[in-house]
Specification:
330 residues, mainly beta, Immunoglobulin-like, 2 domains, five-stranded antiparallel beta sheet, 22 strands, 12% helix, Phytanoyl-CoA hydroxylase-interacting protein, Ig-like_fold, PHYHIP/PHYHIPL
């Protein structure tokens, strides 16, 4: 039987966090003969790869020949924001069950995308299931080292400046390495109603009245839900003043929450006053997208321990946790 030509001119497009569309060129004489495609997909490992992450297997897909382009989805456990290389081979299945195959095409590299809004909505639904009851709170707070606040006063006009979010949390989060903001906490101890005296981030704490950052002029977005091989879970929320750069970034990428009625963080009017509540059973990480004036709050030293084990700096998400993972990637 006449040999098959080698596929060439590979094109990969319509890339999402868990799928892509691929096409290639082959000789006209092969079009009617080819019965199967072999697609070899390999993840490009790098030194920062999560060594606990599941291996992607198998790497070779055998597919019946269909008109090109073809969509590859669900054949592998594709990870979001991950570089892959792909090559193709065509084949004719013969009467004895063996394959006559072409040579392998050139290798093409591509990178999968972030979670889309529908994937984040799935994460949101999972987070809502364990959020627990809502507790009242009155301040947002940020813990850090004394030098951090001294630098803000001396070199930043007494302002806490937004900085780029690290890669902690879900690998597919569209905020990682893209959104600028200032991180705050709001969780309280259920028995005192006050912020805890321990912190993984430093002995100094800036507290600001909740209404300074969260009010009817603020949009609230759900950004992520994850854990770090622990029993407790984290939820990342974004507070963005309406119409701000951060708001415009989030509008196209993250689910918008009703500030008065959601399972995580609420701001509602009761007896003519703004009342704030947070979910009891989640550790909330709040990203405020604009600079924050230190003169709007108070700065002081806390009395507790520095619990470094609770730090989420560049923390890798547990890919095996059934509570906080969805089926399109980790």
């Amino acid at each position: 039987m006449e040999l098959l030509s080698t596929p060439h001119s590979i094109e990969v497009n319509n890339i999402t966090c868990d799928s892509f569309r691929i096409s290639w060129a082959m000789e006209n004489t092969d079009l009617e003969r080819v019965t199967h495609y072999f697609i070899d997909l390999n993840k490009k490992e790098n030194k920062n790869s999560n060594k606990f992450k599941h291996r992607d297997v198998p790497t070779k897909l055998v597919a019946k020949a269909v008109p090109l382009p073809m969509t590859v989805r669900g054949h592998w456990f594709l990870s979001p924001r991950t570089e892959y290389s792909v090559a193709v081979q065509t084949a004719v299945k013969q009467s004895d069950g063996e394959y006559l195959v072409s040579g392998w095409s050139e290798t093409v590299e591509f990178c999968t995308g972030d979670y889309a809004k529908e994937h984040l909505a799935q994460l949101q639904g999972k987070a809502e299931q364990i959020a627990g009851r809502m507790l009242r709170f009155s301040v947002f707070y940020r813990n850090h080292h004394k030098e951090y606040f001294q630098h803000a006063r001396t070199h930043c006009g007494n302002m806490l400046q937004p900085y780029l979010k690290d890669n902690s949390g879900s690998h597919g989060s569209p905020t990682s390495g893209m959104l600028h903001g200032v991180f705050f906490s709001c969780n309280t101890e259920f028995n005192t109603g006050q912020p805890p005296q321990d912190s993984p981030y430093g002995r100094w704490r800036f507290q600001i009245p909740a209404q300074r950052l969260f009010n009817p002029s603020t949009n609230l977005y759900f950004a992520d839900f994850y854990c770090m091989y622990t029993a407790y879970h984290y939820t990342i929320l974004v507070l963005a003043p309406k119409g701000s750069l951060g708001d415009r970034f989030c509008r196209d990428r993250l689910p918008l929450l009703d500030i008065a009625c959601n399972k995580f963080l609420t701001c509602s009017v009761e007896d003519g006053e703004l009342v704030f509540r947070h979910a009891q059973d989640l550790i909330l990480e709040i990203i405020y997208t604009e600079p924050v004036d230190l003169s709007l709050g108070t700065l002081g030293e806390i009395s507790g321990h520095q619990l470094m084990s609770l730090s989420t700096a560049d923390a890798k998400k547990d890919p095996s946790c059934k509570t906080c993972n969805i089926s399109v990637g980790r």
